[in-house]
Amino acid sequence: MRIENLLTRGLVKYEEADRIQRETWAKVRDGELESTLILGQFEPVYTAGRNSHEEDILNKELPVIRTDRAGSLTWHGPGQLVVYPVVKLREPIDLIAYIRAVEAAVIDGVQETWHLPVEIIKGRAGVWLRYRDATRMTAFERGVGMDRKLCAIGLKVVQGATLHGLALNIHPDFSRAFTGIIPCGLADAGVTSLYEEGVETDFPTAAEVLVRQLEVKLKALID
């Protein structure tokens, strides 16, 4: 698996990462480049997937970039690790198997490395922690009693090759991150990070964990 590590550039613009992703996708699709994992940390940006709703934008002055990934409205920015698996899938293409493989990579990586009880929730994309009764809650959880998303996942497959990916919250500033929107259109859920769950780690460590897991989980699906 080839690694395109944009983390060495610091914060990158979403548009630049998207351009690199799509150029990579075309080459992977055509067999000119091996399957690739693109790693990055973005300048603050809001993006809206195919399932977004205008009512989820609470602050109508926010600049929002429309994108063709699955999912709804979200934020990317400092403190969040984004990974785009750009891989050519083996025929016959099994989209569900691909989604489950990406989810499993995050779940196993987080459970084995940081011992957090993450899981998937039926009908809700991403990787989650269930409701907790704790004294330290993020401002963004909007009250006690909510499930909270640790990692967003929004994927797409075009002409046998994949686009978009996952965004793992390591330590974003929740006084700025995700403000002005209803993330993923889920008013009854919260957002959290490794830091908020008591885990202190750095980007190289988190990237190594996800890369290792994705290489293992996607191996059987890649052409």
Protein described:
This protein is of the alpha/beta class and 223 residues long. It has a single domain (2-221), classed as Bira Bifunctional Protein, Domain 2 (BirA Bifunctional Protein, domain 2, 2-Layer Sandwich), CATH 3.30.930.10. The protein is 23% helix and 28% strand. It has helices at 14-29, 95-114, 203-218, and strands at 2-5, 11-12, 36-42, 45-48, 64-66, 73-76, 80-86, 119-121, 124-129, 148-158, 161-169, 190-191. A hairpin with a 2-residue loop joins β8 (119-121) and β9. α2 (95-114) packs across α3 (203-218). The longest helix is centred in the middle third of the chain and has 20 residues, at 95-114. Residues 139-144 have low confidence and may be disordered.
Write the layout of secondary structure elements.
Elements: E1 2-5, E2 11-12, H1 14-29, E3 36-42, E4 45-48, E5 64-66, E6 73-76, E7 80-86, H2 95-114, E8 119-121, E9 124-129, E10 148-158, E11 161-169, E12 190-191, H3 203-218
Parallel strand pairs: 1-3, 2-3, 4-5, 10-12
Antiparallel strand pairs: 3-7, 4-6, 7-11, 8-9, 9-10, 10-11
Helix pairs in contact: 2-3
Keywords: Acyltransferase, Cytoplasm, Transferase
Binding site for substrate: 69-76, 152-154, 165-167
Pfam family, one: LplA-B_cat
Give a brief outline of the structure:
With 223 residues, the chain is α/β, with parallel strands linked by helices.
Elements, N to C (H/E): EEHEEEEEHEEEEEH
Low-confidence stretches: 139-144
Q: What is the terminal separation in angstroms?
A: 12 Å
- Give the mean pLDDT: 91
Do you know the CATH topology?
BirA Bifunctional Protein, domain 2
Provide a count of the helices: 3
CATH homologous superfamily assignment: Bira Bifunctional Protein, Domain 2
Please tell me what the overall shape is: globular
The count of β-strands is 12
- Evaluate the radius of gyration: 17 Å
> How many domains?
1
* CATH C-level class: Alpha Beta
CATH architectural group: 2-Layer Sandwich
- Helical amount: 10-25%
Structural class from helices and strands? alpha/beta
Biggest pleated sheet: 9 strands, mixed
Q: How large is the share of residues in beta strands?
A: 25-35%
